[in-house]
TrEMBL record:
<protein>
    <submittedName>
        <fullName>Xaa-Pro peptidase family protein</fullName>
    </submittedName>
</protein>
<dbReference type="InterPro" id="IPR029149">
    <property type="entry name" value="Creatin/AminoP/Spt16_N"/>
</dbReference>
<dbReference type="InterPro" id="IPR036005">
    <property type="entry name" value="Creatinase/aminopeptidase-like"/>
</dbReference>
<feature type="domain" description="Creatinase N-terminal">
    <location>
        <begin position="25"/>
        <end position="149"/>
    </location>
</feature>
<dbReference type="InterPro" id="IPR050659">
    <property type="entry name" value="Peptidase_M24B"/>
</dbReference>
<dbReference type="Pfam" id="PF00557">
    <property type="entry name" value="Peptidase_M24"/>
</dbReference>
<dbReference type="InterPro" id="IPR000994">
    <property type="entry name" value="Pept_M24"/>
</dbReference>
<dbReference type="Pfam" id="PF01321">
    <property type="entry name" value="Creatinase_N"/>
</dbReference>
<feature type="domain" description="Peptidase M24">
    <location>
        <begin position="159"/>
        <end position="375"/>
    </location>
</feature>
<dbReference type="InterPro" id="IPR000587">
    <property type="entry name" value="Creatinase_N"/>
</dbReference>
Length: 395
């Protein structure tokens, strides 16, 4: 019997058992570090440990994970139903409002022993916790960050689906331009192109998935053309694409809160010798970066091998950033593919591989894929072609 459209949809949410396993793994690391509990207030850490996704604001949301097997999520009462709907893997303790007659963290009750906290906690938040936990010893720790470095198979599957949708967005962006050229009308602006690809990504999710986990950004990215693309993190504007210029689709999306990015630089019309030189230098650098990514290699060494290709082409003066970064529940997270990061790559890590050059008053050239570190190397999640012929759009 054929499946209905609803039956074919896949859920973006991981089962409660997944979070139980994550918590147990972290408890083992806590015990080894001599911690009695761990307090996590970063929104992505909370999502990683409990499955509760929310929009962070002034109202604290924090997980107190005990080495004794307890997991208590502090949250405002207005979020309680939201957390219950998400089947949050923790006991819920709510407070009425912020700042509150009774400070929020006091609702945890008496907390004692050595309690770890992450470096992402703000100074003001740490002061609140210190006042609320007078009998506890607060200890800075990176245990959650380290746990998040290596992705579990369930997470890898979500990243792979995000990559599939990212490839659809890249294809849709190119199609919009080709359709405009065929119709003889004006080409889209950066903002129009960005809106279009973001809509394709989000519509695909809601059509094909259930329990869509809404994070920011859900789907979309940066779109810039001509000289605007010489700014690595430029924002889409009303500038319209023009024949003869490069333009960049720096796209990505999150499925189940797990991100992927895929970026391609396109050229409108037959590329000049200068454009060919720029593009091929970046393409070769990205390929070298792919070959250098493997378990047991330091991030700093991979970055050097990748960017040395661009320097070897005499284009080092146009470098503006490292080779890449970790990616997971955050679009940017450790490890960092940069000269100052000595982290040794491990199987199951996910990093972006995105060398680029930026030529003032001309444009930028960047190719990016999110890469899974495997037992014998690395493989890209995104599959959109990278060859020069594949990114030239005839005019």
């Amino acid at each position: 019997m054929a499946q209905t459209a609803q039956e074919r949809q896949q859920s973006q949410r991981l089962p409660v058992e997944f979070y139980g396993s994550v918590q147990d793994g972290l408890r083992a690391a806590m015990a080894e570090a001599g911690l009695d509990a761990l307090l996590a207030d970063d929104a992505s850490d909370v999502a990683y440990l409990t499955g509760f996704f929310h929009h962070p604001g002034e109202r604290p949301v924090a997980l107190l994970l005990g080495v004794d097997g307890t997991a208590t999520l502090l949250l405002p009462e207005l979020e309680r139903e939201h957390a219950e709907w998400q089947h949050t893997a923790a006991t819920l303790v709510s407070y009425p409002e912020f700042p509150g007659v009774r400070p929020p963290f006091e609702h945890f009750g008496a907390v004692t022993g050595r309690v770890g906290y992450a470096g992402s906690m703000s100074v003001a938040r740490l002061a609140e916790v210190t006042r609320a936990f007078p009998r506890a010893e607060l200890v800075l720790t990176d245990l959650v960050t380290r746990a998040r470095l290596v992705k579990r198979p369930e997470e890898v599957a979500l990243h792979a689906e995000a990559a599939r949708i990212t490839d659809l967005m890249l294809t849709a962006g190119r199609a919009l331009i080709e359709d405009a050229l065929a119709a003889g009308g004006e080409l889209p602006s950066e903002a129009e192109l960005a809106g279009h690809v973001g809509s394709v990504g989000s519509r695909t999710m809601y059509a094909e998935h259930t329990d869509v986990v809404v994070v920011s950004p859900l789907a979309g990215g940066l779109v810039y053309a001509g000289a605007n693309s010489a700014h690595p993190h430029g924002l889409p504007s009303g500038y319209r694409l023009r024949p003869g210029e490069p333009f960049m689709l720096s796209l990505g999306c999150a499925v189940g809160g797990r991100f992927v990015e895929g970026e391609r630089t396109f050229i409108l019309g037959e590329p000049t010798a200068e454009q060919r030189r720029y593009y091929e230098a970046v393409r070769q650098a990205q390929q070298t970066g792919t070959e250098a990514l493997r378990p047991g290699v330091r991030c700093a060494d991979v970055n050097k091998a990748c960017l040395d290709v661009i320097r070897g082409h005499g284009l080092g003066g146009f470098l503006r950033h490292r080779q890449g970064h970790g990616i997971g529940l955050g679009m940017h997270e450790p490890p960092w593919l940069e000269d100052g990061d000595g982290t040794v790559l491990e199987t199951g890590m996910i990093v972006s591989n995105e060398p680029g050059i930026y030529v003032p008053e001309h444009g930028g050239y960047r190719i990016s894929d999110s890469m899974l570190i495997t037992e014998d190397g690395a493989r890209p999640f995104t599959a959109y072609p990278r060859g020069l012929d594949d990114v030239v759009i005839p005019v």
